[in-house]
Write a structure and sequence with these properties.
Elements lengths: L7 H12 L6 H12 L19 H4 E4 L5 E2 L3 E8 L13 E7 L3 H22 L8 H15 L2 H16 L10 E2 L3 E4 L3 E5 L4 E2 L1 H4 L7 H19 L2 E2 L7 E8 L12 E3 L3 H8 L2 H13 L3 E6 L5 E2 L3 H15 L3 H11 L9 H15 L22 H14 L6 H19 L6 H8 L7
Parallel strand pairs: 5-12
Antiparallel strand pairs: 1-3, 2-3, 3-4, 4-7, 6-7, 8-10, 9-13, 10-11, 10-12
Helix pairs in contact: 4-5, 5-15, 8-15, 8-16, 11-12, 12-13
């Protein structure tokens, strides 16, 4: 959670929920996993009887760690080793797997929390009528739907398949980003078994303040997120540092007669443990040594249960607003907001709205066109983006001029703030406009 937007005490409490929630018992994990294994839909069938076998964990896994490697508010993850005879069955070349198991009774607990949250939203809207222009109730309804979907791990399975397809199949002229997702293998609504991914938790990198790979990491995360929005319309809506693993690779020199891509060398997995347990100064030195040796970073995005997609109408809306922003046209942005909001007839003070948006764009540093193959000298360093100030001014703008946003706009903006917060914790600085120009289609226009 962003400490530049919320009090430190609130951020600390929510950080505990991300990675230090109470674990349920291993006995409950075994019961849940074995129930999944004995579901005929997963294909574990006794070849002699032709009927679904009564399987235990030991029949499918060579080992299954009783202590989870991670515990979240909704589920926990155990590391396990799949028996070799199942490798071909699930089209994987590795036996190490991560087994995600929902907490028992989590669904009714979430329902109770969502009922209270939505009641609070209605109270806010009643006490502060102007909040309706920030789509508080609509956004809470969207959030409630997202949370309910997070308690069905078959949806996360499908999300992993879609994300892998989106990032592994690049379009002509599109740069392949060093981003990947775990391969889902099998499961049900309560259990997800996926390929185990080695790496160091990204939280161990952001706490350094700065490191040798800061610029490279920002130029992986920001383009990946913009691509999710502008090209895929399928966004990881919970992309905080706790849901990212960092790995390192380098390309071996190609043989003169070699036509295929040069082979990739990944660092020894033991280095991840060294990085995780080392001091800050030691960690920085190890990273510097890796860079000197020619290794480059690669990010693995985890926990994709929360996703967001825009309706066709709202995807077009955000595309034309971004196009106007890249033209440095604050007046056009204001007009788009005023004419494409939920209730254009309710909007007031049109000329003032245009002047206000022009001033906001000017203060941010986007008041000149960056299209046409040249940025014309316009740059937008990440370090100059003040999220708390932008959020406050944007909220004031929508509320004062009675511009009612759709709920999924607000959700997308919150997801963007999460990702930008990760980038801000790193020591590097990049030109945000450069990222937008690379990832936003040139064909977009308003």
């Amino acid at each position: 959670m962003r400490q530049d937007l919320f009090p430190v005490s609130v951020c600390t409490a929510f950080a505990r929920l991300q990675s230090h929630s109470p674990a349920h018992s291993f006995k409950q994990t075994v019961e849940t996993v074995e129930e999944m294994l004995n579901d005929p839909k997963n294909g574990f069938v006794d070849s002699n009887s032709g009927k679904a076998a009564k399987l235990s964990i030991g029949d499918v896994f060579d080992s299954f760690d009783s202590v989870p490697v991670g515990v979240g508010a909704v589920a926990q993850v155990h590391r396990a080793t799949l028996k070799s005879e199942f490798i071909a069955t699930f089209s994987t070349n590795k036996t190490d797997v991560a087994v995600k198991v929902l907490h028992p009774h989590i669904k009714p607990l979430i329902e109770m929390d969502l009922i209270l949250l939505q009641a609070w939203g209605k109270l806010i809207s009643w006490i502060l009528p102007g909040s309706r222009y920030l789509a508080v109730n609509e956004e809470l309804a969207t959030f409630a739907d997202m949370m309910r979907r997070q308690t069905d791990l078959t949806l996360e399975f499908d999300n992993l398949v879609q994300f892998k397809k989106n990032f592994e199949e690049t379009k002509p002229g599109e740069v392949m980003l060093p981003v990947s997702f775990p391969t889902p293998l099998f499961g049900n609504a309560n259990v997800l078994v996926e390929q185990y991914c080695e790496g160091i938790a990204f939280t161990k990198i952001t706490e350094l303040g700065n490191c040798a790979f800061d610029d490279e990491l920002i130029m992986i995360g920001l383009p990946a997120f913009v691509r999710m929005i502008m090209k895929h319309n399928f966004v990881h809506a919970d992309l905080h540092a706790g849901n990212i693993l960092l790995t390192f690779k380098k390309s071996s020199p190609k043989n003169r007669n070699q036509k295929d891509q040069a082979p990739i060398t990944w660092i020894d997995p033991s280095i991840y443990q060294t990085l995780s347990t080392s001091t800050v100064s030691e960690r920085k030195q190890i990273l510097q040594d890796l860079k000197t040796q020619g290794f480059t970073p690669h990010c693995v995005f985890l926990d994709v249960g929360l996703t967001s997609s825009l309706s066709a109408k709202n995807l077009e809306n955000i595309q034309v607003v971004v196009a106007a922003a890249l033209e440095g046209n604050g007046s056009q942005m204001a007009d788009l907001f005023m004419t494409r909001c939920r209730n254009p007839e309710a909007v007031v003070h049109h000329e003032l709205a245009r002047a206000t948006m022009r001033k906001m764009i000017q203060d941010i540093g986007m008041d000149e066109s960056v299209r046409g193959g040249s940025k014309g000298g316009a740059v937008l360093p990440l370090s100059k983006l003040k999220s708390a100030e932008v959020l406050r001014r944007a909220a004031d703008f929508f509320r004062y001029h009675r511009i009612g946003l759709e709920g999924d706009w607000v959700g997308l903006f919150v997801a963007a703030v999460l990702v930008e917060g990760i980038a801000r914790k790193l020591g590097g600085d990049v030109d945000v406009l450069e990222v937008l120009l690379e990832e936003v289609p040139e064909t977009m226009s308003f």
